[in-house]
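User: I've been going back and forth on whether these two constructs are worth ordering. Before I decide, could you fold them both?

Assistant: Sure. I'll take them in the order you sent them. The first construct and its structure tokens:
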Amino acid sequence: MQVSFGVLGPVVAWDGDGEVIDLKGPKHRAVLARLIVARGQVVPVDRLVEDLWPEPQPGAVSAVRTFVAALRRALEPQRPPRQPARLLVTDGPGYALRPTPDAVDAWRFEEAVAAASSAPPRAALDRLDRALARWRGPAYAGFDDEPWAPVERSRLDQLRLNAVEQRAAALLDLGRAAEAVPDLDAHVAGHPWREEAWRLLALALYRAGRQRDALAVLRRARRLLLDELGIDPGLRLRQLEADILRQTERVDDGPGPAAPDRLWAQTLAAYDRTVPAGSGARLESTVGLLRSLAVTGAGGLEAAREQRITAIVVAEQVGDPELTARVIGGYDVPAIWTRSDDPAQAAQIVAAAERALTTVGPGSFDATRARLLATIAVESRGTRGGRGPEAARQAQRIARRLGDPTLLAFALNGMFMQTFHRAGLAAARDEIGAELVAISARNGLPTYEILGRLVRMQACGGLADFAAADRHAAAADELAERYDRPLVGVFTCWYRALRLAATGSPTRIAEAAYRDAAERLATAGMPGVEQGLLPLTLLCLRVWHGERAGFDDDTDWGPYRPWARPLVLLARDRPADASAALRQIPDPPRDLLLEARWCLTAQAAIALDDRTVMNRARTALAPAAGELAGAGSGVLTAGPVADVLDRLDAALGR
């Protein structure tokens, strides 16, 4: 059982399921806290006695040993009698707590803050947000008067204050000055002696276009420092004030408010004056904005998704077939996941594209027709029938004939989405990814180059070539940082958790990495990826390693429920219900998780001795014998397909 500890607030311990462990009384909790402070070093029993009681009484040593014994029972409840403890150990004259490096929230916090200091702004902001979210109150709350606590509490609190300021600096580096102001305002109110906090607040106000407020903050800081401490403001504060008074266009090596915001406002004003209201040009411009919005992050992706269908409806109402076709085909946002975030909307878009194809007629521009066909191929992902693959092939043929690299990249995205009609196609998808990378690198198409890298990361993972997959993940991250594509990190984070699972890390370590990846996904605005993914990932991992598939009744399996249910029922000793559920499992959708679903079905069929389903699973999985099941998704794996095929052959008597 993986035990974790929290000291960024009241001292607490959690079991592997995230449930709070009963640590008994305050002295038990004090012993645990004192050992955590020691960071794995031995604390002699005599020192523990001194730290627990200002004036130790007779029997204090025995009391400490009693507390330790009780803690061991709580932290390792399944440890057999007389077997040595592995977590709270006896070592020489005392005791030591030896958790894994990621088991204490304070240690993880320190590691994240240190990593953020050398990370690019976007990655730094993500790390700092997750790190600061671990705080539940003052560190080691409840131990204010203990002699061993003040130094450690003060150290952690200083780290937290530094992290708050690092986070604000990252927001400024990302051009999000207005977002930084409220937290910095509260920060200086609570910690008025921190000059860096005042400087960042003034800088954020200046870059948000609030020059007068920025100067007022600097003057307030100067008065406070002089009146209360009798010292002059530091050089950086004085320099910032001088720069603002000179109204420099660049302050502290960062862009002032004049450049991007003023340019945006001036361009919008010129557009409003020049382009007539209600014109088709405005609709096409809107699609261009939505395309940019979709790759900026969770909020942008959701907003773009909502407005895209509205733009199509409005275009159809205008009654210009060519305009409608351009509005539909102009939204060429690369897609990497094979389940739509909104399947109903995807079906509407496919229907609109089909109508546009029949309306524009054969005399329309070939590029327009190819964009409509590529749209159909991308939006019909995961569905059955021949229209999606046919549209992908037609779009690709036209794009190659025209020699248009952007159009070909869009068409290849459609081809990628249609290469899931059977298992074992990771190598084919890798070829598509390689062409996407090559085309994009030659023609300056960074968004499609990122897509190509992610496709190759997935495909190489499915082929168990993790050295190559690592290179493509790193390249995708580098491009994402350079071109501000924050959603890319969601997929590379999941890939790295998958890599841990696939390359022999202990289940608990892999599960912890998956849970961290799920936290990032929860705010990414991609319900088609998020829903049910974490429990499916954990189920695949546990079944692969022969562990019990224990899950709560209220687990949200999303679209994966039919494939999970037989195994979950088996874990609850309900074989009859599991057999009934197994017989109701449909063939999996044609998507990135095709092989993983078939492997779960096969494992349940073997356990229930259902030969009919075993034969179906074996036929479906045979073409993927050389792949890792599900690893081609870049998010999970159910282990080598060959192992599952061997188990099926043994069960079938082949």
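The second construct, handled the same way:
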Amino acid sequence: MGNASNNNEKLIRLLEEQLDHSNQQNKDLSKKLDQSTKQIEALTEQIRHLTKRLYGSKTEKSKYNGPEGQFSLFEDDPSFSEPEHTEEQSQQTISYTVVRKAQNKKRNDSLDDGIEIEAVHHHPENLVCDCCQGQMIEIGSTVTREEAEFVPARMKKIQHIEHAYECKECKTDLHQKAQIKRGKSPQPPIQRSLASPSVLAKVIYDKFIQYLPLYRQVKEWERYGLKTNDKNLSNWVIRVSQDWLLLIYEQMKQAVMTKSLLHVDETYGQIINRSDGKSGQTNAYNWVYRSVPSQGPTIILFQSSLSRSRSVLENFLGDFSGTIICDGYSAYDKIKGVTFANCWAHVRRYWLKVESKNGKTGVKFCDDLYRLERQFKHLPPSKRRKQRQKYSKPIVDKLLAWIEGLPFLGKSAIAKAVQYTFNRMDGLKAFLNDGRIEIDNNPAENAIRPSVIGRKNWLHSVSEAGAQANAVCLSLAETAQANGVDFYQYLVKLLTDLPNLDIHRDPEILKQYMPWSQNIQLECGK
């Protein structure tokens, strides 16, 4: 009886141990299953994201409609691209447009009022009446159509001839030297060169406004009658940039450094012959600095650099003190005397990549902020700050409380969105406390777009001098356009006047040639 009892106890203990072991195995398997499930979810989300990037629409428009049936937040914003259409949608759009045109009967082309008008009259060949053979008289006329005629540009050779004069009376006097006076031709932008201010302005305008690379301009100049090559055109651009346009650039930089708010962004480029010994395939960078409208005329400056390091930004800023509005790049941090405001458009892009309900929620928070910004857009800074504190701040606080309950770790899209938003929250809140600060860095991104478009056409800069010349020309081009100045006429004015002014002795003269000066606005304004 005792042996049977002991055997039963041993059997029970053995079964309990096996049960514990099985339970532990189940726990381990459950843990592995949870890990596998999370990995599958992360990989599935990554596949969705990559598939969307490969095949999906490239728009950043929100599909969310507000409670009052509001349209997309970014519908009128040029910084967000139009959605792609399917073939069926495109056909529907074209059909609708044609109907609208037929109903409204509006032209999509027109000529300016100041265009020269040439009337071409058409009379009957025979003015004798076929019935009575009498002479016919005019009873009226009708303008049957108007058309635009293109008059091609033409090249002229300008010869500057200096005439010398002497006094006849003094010449006959043997005791006195005859006085001689000579006419003086104006100084050219480039000595011993065929390039006049108008030719140089056309070369620079076509490259930086029309995005026409120099090697494509060569044949056009030959058609006009000027034989040259792209190397020569490049040397012209570099020379006038260094000798004359850089003087304006430096004055603009001095004006920018007096501001307390700046938009900053950067994009990559290529410089073939680098001074640091690196390969021409290594990325160089174009930085852009843009002032804000509330602090005077808009100034846009480009800077060419071999790197993207913080030292580039520090060297350019010098003694600048204030706030920089930028994206989340680490170089924009820890600079003495500078605070940073971060960009909500970048936050929104991170949440757009999250293919889940959480992603839509994150985008909606951003859309709510942008919807308010559109309402506050035309308010003065002080009133805009009050409205932001009252309406925008609660949304930011709700967003922060919401993301604290989301996963921070891992490489999933939602983890990246949470980390990006949470780590930059101090900079993202900056716009709430200063009505002059924009909610995003889109002004800088829009300003740098010409450099990106140009990169697709120019491909690269051969030398650092060429890259610096590009930065100077782009700065003048974008600042001139932002201030309503015709860039071509502005260049002609600069390259005609500056070589003949004593600007080194009196640098204050240059202030009269800033794009926003009254002098330039009157002569070169659009």
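Notes on the second construct follow. The chain is about 50% helix and 10% strand. Residues 242 and 469 are 7 Å apart (CA to CA).
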